[in-house]
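Subject: sequence -> structure tokens, single chain

Hey, anyone have a minute? Need the predicted structure for the following. Not urgent.
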Amino acid sequence: VESCVSHFSTKENGGHPFPLAVNRGTIRAMQGSKIFLLILPICAYGQPKYMIQDLGSLPNMPSCTGTAISQSGNVTGYCNLAGSSVFLGGATHGFVYSKGALTDMGQTSKPTVPTGVNDSGVAVGAYVSINLAKGVSVAPFIYQNGSIQAFAGVPTNAAPFGLNNAGQSAATQILEGGFNFFIASQAFFITGAGTSTALSSSQASQGVAFGISPSGDWVAGGTANVVAQQLDSLKGSLWHSGAFQALPLAPNFNYATATGVNDSGMASGMGFTINFTQLQDPHAAGHALLFNNGA
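Reply:
Had a minute. Here:
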């Protein structure tokens, strides 16, 4: 009570709105007033408490990453051998965490990277192969009923991102000559019936899709223009029921993309600056972004 009221009471000497000490008489007076009843829920709501739960790791694969979570709390991700990574092409197993159990998706020939999971424990993702000379290649999969299967409806060499309870997903296809998800790419909406719809924009030649809302009404991603195999522009974008909607430019960064969206059309994403022609850019920088529409 003292901690809460200290943020709303005032000091007698100076009237500072955030006193270091609380007058107990003020607390007793406020407890007997309607003001206290109004303030207490605000304090409780404004101070959420989080606990960290270690989900563990898979046998002989101690390096694990969580990549997505469902509304009910199912988690998916992947684990690597010690000292290995997806980028190095090392052994990578996907997992689903549900009801206290960490389940291994099993061994595959290529690194398995899940990117979405729903309340039924169904997960989607892609097998990823990265070749510095040839670029990135992916193959979509869906994990359900205890096994990994081909994800019907997703175009070839496309990676699904996100999965809602209706079985809908967003996806990005890497076209021939694509060295990353932004050059030579096409965005898609994947229906629960196993069909795909291309998402386009009159403002750009390329598109990426990285997230879908729980209702499936919104898809988050970006639209890009490419000149001579170099990324000329990349802007955050949304598609609402298939209709394109441009997001504002990110100040201080050359590129931006949306990566997630909720049912109100509010999106998360990133703004970044990088030289794609360099294997390692020491001046690369990026920030997480919230595209806030006031919803």
